Amino acid sequence: MKHFFYLNWQSARHALAKILRQPFGSLLTLLMLSIALALPLSLYLTVSSIQEWAGRLTATPQITLFMEQSAEEADLAAVSSTLTKHPRIQSYSFVGKKQALSDLEKRNGLAGLSDGLTDNPLPDAFVVTPKTLEPHELEMLQKELSGLPMVETAQFDARWAKRLYGMVEMGKQLTWFLGAALGIALVLVTYNAVRMQILARRDEIEVAKLIGAPDSFIRRPFMYHAMWQGLLAGLAAWGLTSWLVLTANPAIHDFAQLYNERVDLRGLTPPELLIVLAISAVLAMLGARLAADHHLRQIQPR
Amino acid sequence: MQGMIQFDQVTKRYPGGNEALKNLSFTIDTGEMVFLAGHSGAGKSTLLKLVAGIERATSGGVIVSGQNLSKLRNSQIPYVRQHIGMVFQDHKLLFDRSVFDNVMLPLDIIGFDRRDAARRVRAALDKVGLLSKEKTMPIRLSGGEQQRLCIARAVVHRPSLLLADEPSANLDRAYALDIMELFKSFHQVGVTVVISAHDETLMEDYGRRIIRLKEGQFAA
User: Fold this and answer.
1) What order do you get walking across the sheet with B59-64 strand by strand?
2) CA–CA distance, A200 with A97 (Å, rounded to integer)
3) pLDDT at position A159, please?
4) Buried b (16+ CB within 10 A) or exposed e, A277-294
5) Contact A300, A209 (CB under 8 A)
6) Cβ of A65: how many Cβ atoms within 10 Å?
7) How far is the C-alpha of A42 from the C-alpha of A265, rounded, in Å?
8) From B103, which residue of chain A is nearest by alpha-carbon distance?
9) Which of A21, A129, A285, B86 suits B25 as a labelling partner, its CA being 20 to 30 A distant?
10) Using an 8 Å Cβ cutoff, are B42 and B215 in contact?
């Protein structure tokens, strides 16, 4: 058992030393791997940054209920009690037609507007703050509220937030798709790299088999080579995305500033980095294992 | 006592129909030193390959130190080979590493403690007279030296069975005698030794059993 760990430690060290000794030999593979990783990672960071910002933004979506002109005190009381009891409603406030008119006058400098009107044309209104942020549920709530007696319309003020949410969802899907596709690419790239290595060391493998090396012994250096390559590619991808975040952030700030918003493109958190490294190492080793299983069988001493 | 090598009605037919061995039965005892004689194509190499599990018998049983090779899975064959030392006519050395590292390979494979291994490698190199060249690359050795290096690699893990396929084929007589003496010394410490050659003059001096093959059968 001690020997087993010793052998593995030896192989791991030799494999790393080999990569470091010939950095340019592995550079092309490393570059391919790190780009394959950096693409979905960047998209992931972009999407999750937007989501974070959108989360702050839609924290208080509101639905405004406009009552019919003919609504009476009793109707208002009925709606108000429904709203109080409703489980998905956080709070609501009532804006009566008189108050609405005076607000309008104040806000727009239209003092004396009401003097010229015989009737107040504005309806009574409830401004409802729902508990949920999820667009689908908001829509359900809006429909439900617009069906209340004497409610003319229920207006959802943040339609565009729904669109944003949809786009974020699409971005997430795209991230998954890209991640899966490029994960497969990563496996294939290491498969090919290890295949080339095995073919280049054909004689050595044949001799090792002749003097009794089991497949696990022959496979080990290739597996560790792939593991290091996966880890290095993960680090390189992290470097690439960090660089992207650093260079893109000022531009994004300026752009968001135009809308009086603050949007930050975030970098990978340490746990995320660890996950990325683990995934890339495992995928690279998977490629190496597939290549070794396939091609070591073909090399038989004669 | 069971023999080290036991062939029981072994036939080997290569794809294409060429029958290299025909219904061959014999036993080589543990600790015996045996020569295999015959012209090239008589089946000597095939016989050795069957013993080492490099080829599998078409029919019949090949039993090496009590294990029936025909019944082993491919993945078990390496562990059989770890108890066998093999010397090849074309040496099969690795030219990308030093003499020392070539001899180290079998010990790495069976997983020897690194410091004991270095001592064993030097002992094996000393035995074949190459200790002073441990850092040399094999490409700079003469043909005879390369053959001796191959022998050092074959015996470094102290196998109980040593197989040599035409070990002296490309060497002049003085070198060939040197190498025969080496094999004799391994035999004297209890190793079973099987040596094939097409030149019988070298064998006759040793007074050992000679298995003569002709077209895959015992020669009359």
Assistant:
1) B19-28, B5-13, B59-64, B67-68
2) 85
3) 64
4) bebbbbbbbbbbbbbbee
5) yes
6) 24
7) 10
8) A211
9) B86
10) yes
Which residue segments constitute the domains of chain A, with CATH numbers given?
A: 7-57+163-298 (no CATH), 63-157 (3.30.70.3040)
Q: CB–CB of B153 and A211 under 8 A? A: yes
Other Cβ atoms closer than 10 A to B59: 12
Give tens-digit pLDDT for A12-69: 887 788 777 777 777 888 888 898 899 889 988 888 888 788 766 655 667 888 888 8
> What ipTM does the predicted assembly reach?
0.89
Strands (E), chain A: 63-67, 89-95, 125-130, 151-156
pLDDT averages per 10-residue partition of chain B, 220 residues: 85 90 93 91 91 92 91 90 92 91 92 87 94 94 92 94 88 85 92 89 82 87
Test the B interface: residue of A7, A9, A211 with most B CBs within 10 Å? A211
Structural domains of chain B sorted by starting position, each given as residue range(s) with its CATH number in brackets: 1-83+159-220 (3.40.50.300), 94-157 (no CATH)
